[in-house]
Amino acid sequence: MSSAASNDLVRRPFEGLPNERDLVAMRQLVPAATAPARTTAEHGDVPVVLATILPMAWPAVRRSDGSVIVGVQASYPGGDLSRGIGQALASALASEPGTPVTAVEVTAESPRLQDLLDPASIGELAVHDTFDFWLDPGAERTAEIEHSLQHANESIMATAAVDGLPSAFWVDAGAKEHLRWVLDADEDRVIDAVTRLHARRESAIGEGTKYVGSFRAEGMTIPVWDLPEGYGAAGVASEAEAFRSRFEEALASTDPLTPAERRARGGIVARQVTLR
């Protein structure tokens, strides 16, 4: 049974870890991605792969070589996502090589990711177009595994990181293309920045694009833009420098909103959505 402390909601579970914004993107936005890390010397200096999702939505797997791969998108109990993922990692470290962690029980004694990982070891997020990172290099690649992998790969929506906008991701959602940008600025400041640009008709990234709202997730604010068909990550990247410059200028402004901006803000706030 989880204790009350382990159920307390932690608004920013990845706070203090490098690439916090990318970890939020791995949890909420990107279908297939990994980032390398290692545990601290105290916990064995073990190679770790932080991944979006694993087969069967397992929380973690101890691979045949002793390394661990952890699924950030797995279902974790309690109110502290970092503690849930940390417990999955700790359980994998205590398992025999070649063993999956199929369920996690979180208590007040469960470690957080911040307790287990060496911050300096956490590398950059890599977006993949297949789930080939599921494969254990030391395990046999059977026909059943190949079939399962092919089926999973067919479910991936095309996604790419955008050059020039850190922690921003283009996605082809089928009927539409989107840009989703993970920001760690205060939510009200982000809304005010979008409002200032919107009132000046400058909230679009480029021609044919449109700001459509924002998500809240793991303490981050994630504005979203609709993009014309065929715009692609390259289209966003071509506008990234100019857009980032005017957005950051608006974000830094402390001037009171004008009457026109206050009217625009009401519509912006109405488009906010919280992801759990």
Account of the 3D structure:
The protein has helices spanning 4-7, 20-28, 81-93, 113-116, 143-153, 187-199, 232-252, 259-269, and strands at 33-38, 47-51, 60-62, 68-71, 99-101, 126-127, 159-161, 168-172, 177-181, 210-217, 220-227, 272-274. The chain is of the alpha+beta class and 276 residues long. The strands form two sheets. Strands 5-3-4-2-1-6 form a six-stranded mixed beta sheet, covered by helices on one side. A six-stranded mixed beta sheet has the order 7-8-9-11-10-12. Strand 8 (168-172) and strand 9 (177-181) form a beta hairpin. Helix 6 packs across helix 7 (232-252). The longest helix has 21 residues, at 232-252. The model has no long low-confidence stretch (mean pLDDT 92).
Short description:
By secondary structure, the chain is α+β, with helices and mostly antiparallel strands.
Features:
276 residues, alpha+beta, 12 strands
**H/E element order:** HHEEEEHEHEHEEEHEEHHE
Please estimate the helix content: 25-40%
Overall pLDDT level: 92
Q: Return Rg in Å.
A: 20 Å
Note the gap between the termini. 22 Å
Number of helical runs?
A: 8
Poorly predicted sequence stretches spanning 5 or more consecutive residues: none
Q: Output the structural class.
A: alpha+beta
The strands making up the biggest β-sheet line up spatially as 5-3-4-2-1-6
Strand content: 15-25%
How many strand elements? 12
Largest sheet, if any? 6 strands, mixed
What is the approximate shape?
Answer: globular
